[in-house]
UniProtKB/TrEMBL annotation:
The keyword Zinc belongs to this UniProt entry's keyword annotation: yes
Protein family according to the UniProt entry: Belongs to the ubiquitin-activating E1 family.
PANTHER family tied to this protein: SUMO-ACTIVATING ENZYME SUBUNIT 2, UBIQUITIN-ACTIVATING ENZYME E1
Pathway listed: Protein modification; protein sumoylation
The organism's taxonomic lineage, starting at the top: Eukaryota, Fungi, Dikarya, Ascomycota, Pezizomycotina
GO cellular component, one term: SUMO activating enzyme complex
Keyword terms: ATP-binding, Metal-binding, Nucleotide-binding, Nucleus, Transferase, Ubl conjugation pathway, Zinc
Binding-site residues for Zn(2+), renumbered to this chain: 165, 168, 438, 441
Organism, scientific name: Massarina eburnea CBS 473.64
Chain segments carrying region Disordered: 546-612
Subunit composition and interactions: Heterodimer.
Domain Ubiquitin-activating enzyme SCCH: start-end pairs: 316-376
Regions of compositional bias (Low complexity) in chain numbering: 566-583
Name of protein: Ubiquitin-activating enzyme E1-like
Length: 629
């Protein structure tokens, strides 16, 4: 390729070897949102030869303030495709491949991940991050993981066997509220907001409260009966859903949740001995008060609506949402399952419904009402996303990738961007070694070709594991969180892998449960293949050595996963936590600041920045700029 002016400067600052390598490199970027747009621009301008990017989402108005590759005319279009189009113009020498897809789709197989030199995560949720981490470990490809929340940012280079993986430090479970707090005894406005969003909205328009991560249904001896009652209430509400579109539907819903359910709660006298009793609301009297309240009231999002205004917005948004469902139903082919809606803070209809319902419930339980604006922050768990944090984090990702590509992993750093509370705005830590207890990377891993339609679980258990890999009596075979086989669970042995819903690129984990000299967990990456009928229905390509697991440390007291209501400082529940909670890191969770959730927008108002300067040091040897190396 000819050397352009662009190449000349890149060569000067990166050094010839690295620049040549970058021009040839094929890299993958997952997520084209806040960090992703910045990262793509950086990769393109640095001159990475071939960039593949995956994002499942479409562009929303609220993305435009920081996701600068997108413009007004792109709203509702695929982020991946528009990002490719916009960033492609910055450097015509770079090849960009875009996929409007979920990275968890089976077509993005381990073999596909193996085709990349480096993978970059620019995601916003724990689940997808974990998936990419697992795939990169299986493919043995370096991963640059990143996240921001408000003014906080973090970059973590990950290399199989050489550094900690994303899951080496436990991540906090998403915070949730006990079902009884939400459904029977709310005491803060956030409880009413979670009720409106995760219960009422879901039962009427969505799938079900059962799927809501915010509501914890853990039973204990004290709440068993009430959980049973609440399940009956939810079933009754679902029945009312059948009347959607009818004249009496709004009254039915209103009277069910703001009158009948409250009357049932009132009948449980013990519940109110130490609590103020709720008051049921009256449809007819609120109807009278709401006469003359126009639908424009929903636009006053900073104001605290009166009870009548909340009532009016409740009815109006219920009608808007019902008609949406009815229209979708009419448009779709018969026999399809009924359409469902999902809550989205940027969808005015769902937001109005949740705001008005939450406030009406606050009225029932004598709590302050909140403005729609405030409820949006709480329901959407929003911390303002800061464009500059994303930009800095994305550039740190590229700087770390340079070190990985030079083969200098020992120089790569875990970098933290924090506005205050630390001496510097940027701090860097040497990468820690893998955690020997990590359930994801401290495992033996191998690929097995399997004729999925022909091989039974018994073939794997007896043939592969006992005969070839010398497993004893005590072990289990697991797929995700379900046990397919253990000595007491042999019902699946005669089933084929297809019958067990295992597909190409499924993972099975074998846990050795021997009393002595148990081996580390073994992860089998199942690759579907039609094997010769006369041969065994599975084939292990390489011999694998499965080391003995280190002796277990005495159990430490649990620090997370508490099943009962936990809120952060703002009384907001975090949708998906991402914080490291073990002691391997130098800084405490609070100091690092990212621990509630690396992802932006998670329920905490970010602290103000201080006056510290960014520390950048010139690395004269390599021509590159490195951070605090
Ligand atoms: N499983 C996945 N596969 C592909 N892309 C994903 C997956 N999960 C999340 N993403 C993408 O990662 C990106 C994360 O970007 P970001 O954190 O800026 O979120 P956003 O949705 O753009 O912004 P906001 O949530 O603040 O409106 C999003 O564009 C999202 O679509
Ligand atoms: Zn790990």
């Amino acid at each position: 390729m000819p050397t352009t002016g662009r190449d000349k400067y890149a060569r000067q600052s990166l050094g010839g070897n690295l620049q040549t390598r970058i021009k040839k490199a094929r890299v993958l970027m997952v997520g084209a949102g806040g960090i992703g747009c910045e990262l793509l621009k950086n990769l393109v301008l640095t001159g990475f030869g071939e960039i593949h990017l995956v994002d499942l989402d479409t562009i929303d108005l609220s993305n435009l303030n920081r996701q600068f590759l997108f413009r007004n005319e792109h709203i509702k279009k695929s982020k991946a495709l528009v990002a490719k189009e916009s960033a492609g113009r910055f450097n015509p020498n770079v090849k960009i491949e875009a996929y409007h897809d979920n990275i968890k789709d089976p077509k993005f197989s381990v073999a596909w991940f193996q085709t990349f030199e480096v993978v970059f995560n620019a995601l916003d949720n724990l689940d997808a991050r974990r998936h990419v981490n697992k795939m990169c470990l299986a493919a043995d490809v370096p991963l640059i993981e990143s996240g921001t929340t408000g003014f906080l940012g973090q970059v973590q280079p990950i290399r199989k066997g050489k550094s900690q993986c994303y899951d080496c430090t436990p991540k906090e479970a998403p915070k949730s509220f006990a079902v009884c707090t939400i459904r029977s005894t709310p005491s803060q406005p956030i409880h009413c907001i979670v009720w409106a969003k995760a219960y009422l909205f879901n039962e009427i328009f969505g799938t079900s409260e059962d799927d809501a991560p915010e509501i914890d249904k853990t039973e204990d001896s004290g709440n068993k009966e009430e959980i049973g009652n609440l399940a009956k209430e939810a079933t009754a509400l679902k029945r009312i859903r059948g009347a959607m579109g009818s004249e009496e539907f709004p009254r039915l819903v209103f009277e069910k949740v703001f009158k009948e359910d409250i009357e049932r709660l009132l009948s449980m006298e013990d519940m109110w001995k130490a609590r103020t009793k709720p008051v049921a609301l009256d449809y007819d009297s609120l109807s009278g008060e709401a006469l003359g309240v126009g639908s424009a009231v929903a636009k006053k999002d900073q104001a605290e609506w009166t009870p009548a205004e909340n009532f009016a917005v409740f009815l109006d948004s219920l009608r808007r949402l019902s008609s949406r469902v009815e229209e979708t139903k009419a448009a779709q082919a018969t026999g399809n399952s009924p359409p469902v809606l999902t809550f989205d803070k940027d969808d005015e209809d769902t937001m109005d419904f949740v705001a008005a319902s939450a406030n009406l419930r606050s009225l029932v339980f004598h709590m302050e009402r909140k403005s729609k604006f405030d409820i949006k922050q709480m329901a959407g768990n929003i911390i303002p996303a800061i464009a500059t944090t994303n930009a800095m984090t994305a550039s740190l990702c590229v700087l770390q990738a340079f070190k990985v590509m030079r083969g200098e992993l020992h120089k790569a750093k875990m970098v933290f961007l924090a506005p205050n509370g630390t001496e510097r705005r940027l701090t860097a830590e040497t990468l820690s070694s893998p955690n020997p207890d990590c359930p994801v990377c401290s495992v033996a891993q191998t690929t097995v070709e399997v004729d999925l339609a022909r091989a039974t679980l018994n073939d794997l258990v007896e043939g592969l594991l006992r005969l070839e890999l010398k497993y004893g009596e005590e072990f289990s075979v697991n797929s995700g969180s379900s046990i397919l086989y253990d000595p007491d669970e042999d019902i699946n042995l005669s089933k084929t892998l297809t019958e067990l819903d295992l597909q190409n690129d499924s993972f099975l984990t074998v846990i050795d449960e021997s009393q002595e000299n148990a081996r580390v967990n073994l992860v089998l990456n199942i690759v579907g293949k039609d094997l010769n009928k006369g041969d065994k229905p599975y084939h292990l390509d390489k011999k694998i050595d499965i080391p003995i697991a280190p002796p277990k440390k005495p159990t430490e007291p649990e620090t997370n996963g508490h099943p009962h209501p936990v809120t952060n400082g703002n009384g907001v529940s975090n949708g998906a936590a991402n914080g490291a909670t073990n002691g391997t890191r130098k800084r405490t969770a609070d100091e690092a600041g990212l621990e509630d959730e690396l992802i932006k927008k998670k329920g905490k108002v970010a602290a103000k920045p201080d006056e510290d300067d960014i520390v950048l040091i010139e690395d004269s040897n390599e021509g590159a700029i490195v951070i605090d190396d």
